[in-house]
UniProtKB/TrEMBL annotation:
Biased composition (Low complexity): 38-48
Region Disordered, annotated ranges: 38-116
Signal peptide positions on this chain: 1-37
Keyword Nuclease annotated: no
Protein name: Carboxypeptidase-like regulatory domain-containing protein
The entry's keywords: Signal
Biased composition (Basic and acidic residues): 92-103
Listed Polar residues bias regions: 52-68
Record flagged with keyword Signal: yes
Domain of life: Bacteria
């Protein structure tokens, strides 16, 4: 369920807070009189007053006589050198200096003399990759380029390109493959319009009103072509269009793009009927559908889909309603869908409710979507003080009579017993009795969260049962250790019995670790490792390893590496939602690969001021990860997988993509508050990133890393 998560903001580092507290204590002593000191019985005279820097009296002091007649200097008592006596006293001044009056920081070792002009950067990489995937060995050699240029007249220009040579058999022998994308964002036009343009390998655009769906997900279509996005924020107008050739991403560690035989066209608009009513429409024409190949990887096949999607939302002070309608024709099979979503906010309670009817063969673009269902749903969320709870109930019937008919419900509660301890649990049930059969299932979850001096720990118990007699249970322990700055480590251990059918259960034990460490100022290592052993109906063992390292061998040169060992996975038996888009590609063959990259980075220019800040402001970095949050607690556990190839926007102008570890990074970001936006176009189904998590605000401090972890969730 939806949770609003506020990122903690540290107004001052701990050493600065301690220094200010010390100054305040000394200042209070300075204002005390000898009589007051005598009354207090402290036996100490008032402390000498000290002026702030820049007052012309930086080392001045005022004699303060103790009861034994000697001169008391509090700074000498704390180990500071003695002040020169005889200086005239001065008035105390506030020691907090406005940011615009700070002296410039000494330059970074990576900076050069090219500090004039807007921010700009680029990187070039030489890449080598060797892999064994499903018994097939291959070598990929190539080069990559990326960069951005923040202009004053043409918006922010960014580019990413990859060209590599592959000898994989499925690539038909020796072939050159790659991707290239060019973006122009934030181009200001007359009339208050803002323009974003894209060229190369893209995903079809969609208005926010249609993209932000609560119960049903309509994915975008990958293509190679061009797109444009016009926005007029004051009037609530938005116009989008895209044209290209459809296809699918290919490659193991290096992503190429396989162009299909058909074309893709989309045109969309969003507008404001009135201050409370918005509308949107999207037309999508595609030739081709994405289906799994013999290795479980996405493959683009010929097919023809024409679809029209429209939505209208009414926003009240505490309530909102959105009506969505979709009509499609896929290879001659026409279908229609309609669903209504509502939300009501009542103090600590949030109510969500809706009705839906999606006919069989309903289609949207290249990916499969929900269809052949009708019914309604209700959700309630409660958050107040130490309590948080939610509950849901769905009634689902098959339109054709060939699908799921029954009820689906779940409930969740959590109580924060103390600042360090919280506990709760959840219950999920699915009940279906179509044609005299029984397709019921239940899951139970109990957990305890504990914050200690050693870090944060979760103990969790899951149990599942279905009508076929398959019983599963597992006990998990996740612990995020409290580490020094520059290090991170999470550990996970699990034991249980997992059953996919009545044939029997497999006793399974797992151990996992995720983290990283800055071994030196120039060398860092991070990654994850997972060991699993099963015995019984599914006797197997395996180790999944994803290890990355970065070595800065010179001021602008880095050597990056990645080692991957993967034996695949299967769908969890603890996910019961009957209309959730379950993963199409569940099991992957054995994958072992090593990746090496020699990278050159160039950066120049100074960032613009943020939230009223001046030009040439001090900078920091933003680093983060996107991961698949299995237990929906907002904390990345060692057993939770990263989400790769996901685009993250900074202030709507600069973009970065997550790597194999789910990491993304923005360097030299101006100090202040910034907005991040996650575009989940390449997020695997059925995972979604909720609005509150996908659009966090991040506070950047001088020469520090602002860290943010964003978890994708799926409804249980």
């Amino acid at each position: 369920m939806t949770r609003r998560i506020a990122l903690p903001h540290r107004l001052l580092p701990a050493p600065s807070a301690l220094a200010i507290a010390l100054c305040a204590a000394l200042s209070a002593a300075a204002w005390a009189t000898p009589a007051t000191a005598a009354t207090s019985g402290t036996g100490a005279a008032p402390a000498a007053q000290r002026d702030t820097p820049g007052s012309g009296n930086d080392t001045g002091s005022e004699d303060s006589t103790t009861y034994d007649g000697s001169v008391y200097d509090p700074f000498r008592a704390f180990g500071f050198p003695a002040d020169d006596a005889g200086e005239p006293p001065s008035t105390y001044r506030d020691r907090i200096i406005a940011p615009e009056k700070l002296e410039p920081l000494p330059p970074d070792e990576d900076e050069d003399d090219a500090l004039a002009g807007p921010p700009r950067a680029f990187h070039v990489e030489a890449i080598a990759h060797r892999t064994r995937f499903g018994g097939e060995r291959s070598v990929e050699l190539g080069a990559a380029f990326g960069g951005y240029w923040d202009t004053s007249d043409w918006g922010a220009i960014s580019a990413d390109a990859l060209l590599f040579h592959s000898d994989r058999d499925r690539d038909e022998g020796q072939r050159l493959r790659g991707t290239a994308t060019l973006w122009q964002r934030g181009l200001q036009m007359p009339g208050g319009w803002s323009l974003d343009n894209g060229l190369g390998v893209l995903n079809t655009p969609m208005p926010d009103l249609l993209r932000d769906q609560y119960r049903f997900i309509l994915p975008s279509v990958p293509m190679v072509g061009a797109s444009t996005d016009w926005r007029q924020r004051e009037r609530g107008l938005r116009v989008q269009a895209g044209l290209g050739r459809g296809g699918s991403y290919t490659g193991s560690r290096l992503n190429g793009f396989e162009i299909g035989d058909g074309s893709v066209f989309t045109a969309a608009a969003q507008w404001r009927w009135s201050p409370r009513i918005d509308g949107a429409v999207d037309v999508l024409l595609t030739d081709g559908r994405i289906v799994p190949d013999d290795q479980g990887l996405p493959d683009f096949q010929n097919g023809r889909t024409r679809a029209l999607f429209t939505g209208h939302r009414w926003n009240g002070a505490r309530d909102s309603l959105q009506l969505n309608m979709l009509a499609s024709d896929a290879n001659g099979d026409s279908a229609a869908g309609i669903w209504l979503d509502g939300r009501s906010d009542r103090g600590s309670f949030v109510h969500r409710y809706g009705l839906f009817r999606l006919e069989p063969d309903l289609a949207w673009g290249a990916w499969p979507i929900n269809n052949d269902v009708r019914g309604g749903y209700y959700r309630i969320d409660y958050n107040r003080a130490r309590w948080s709870a939610n509950a849901a109930l769905d009634r689902i019937d098959s339109v054709s009579g060939m699908g799921f008919d029954g009820w689906y419900g779940n409930g969740y509660v959590r109580y924060q017993a103390s600042p360090r301890t919280g506990f709760g649990g959840g219950l999920t049930a699915r009940q279906s009795g179509r044609d005299g059969g029984d397709d019921s299932a239940q899951t139970l979850q109990l957990f305890v969260d504990r914050l200690s001096d050693w870090g944060q720990t979760r103990l969790q118990y899951d149990r599942a049962h279905d009508s076929s007699g398959a019983d599963s249970w597992q006990v998990l322990v996740d612990h995020a250790l409290r580490m020094r700055e520059g290090s991170r480590l999470s550990l996970s251990a699990g034991f249980g019995e997992l059953a996919q059918d009545r044939d029997g259960a497999s006793r399974t034990a797992t151990l996992a670790a995720y983290g990283g460490v800055d071994l030196t100022d120039t060398f860092s290592v991070d990654g994850s490792v997972r060991w699993a052993r099963s015995s019984g109906a599914d006797d197997s063992r395996g180790t999944d390893l994803n290890l990355g390292w970065r070595w800065r061998i010179a001021s602008r040169w880095s050597l990056l590496g990645n080692l991957i060992e993967s034996r695949g996975s299967r769908r969890s038996p603890f996910v019961l939602d009957p209309i959730t888009n379950q993963p199409v590609f569940e099991t992957l063959p054995h994958d072992r690969s090593i990746f090496l990259s020699l990278r050159y980075d160039y950066r120049a220019g100074q960032p613009r001021g943020v939230l009223g800040g001046p030009p040439n402001a001090a900078t920091g970095d933003i680093v983060g990860t996107i991961f698949l949050d299995e237990n929906n607690d907002g904390v990345r556990s060692a057993s939770e997988r990263p989400a790769a190839n996901i685009t993250v926007l900074l202030d709507g102008r600069f973009s970065a993509k997550t790597d194999e570890q789910g990491r993304f990074r923005f360097d030299r970001v101006a100090v202040g508050t910034h907005d991040l936006l996650v575009i989940p176009d390449n997020l695997p189904l059925p995972w979604v990133i909720e609005d509150e998590r996908g659009n966090p605000r991040v506070q950047v401090e001088v020469r520090k890393d602002a860290t943010v972890d964003i978890g994708a969730v799926r409804q249980r």
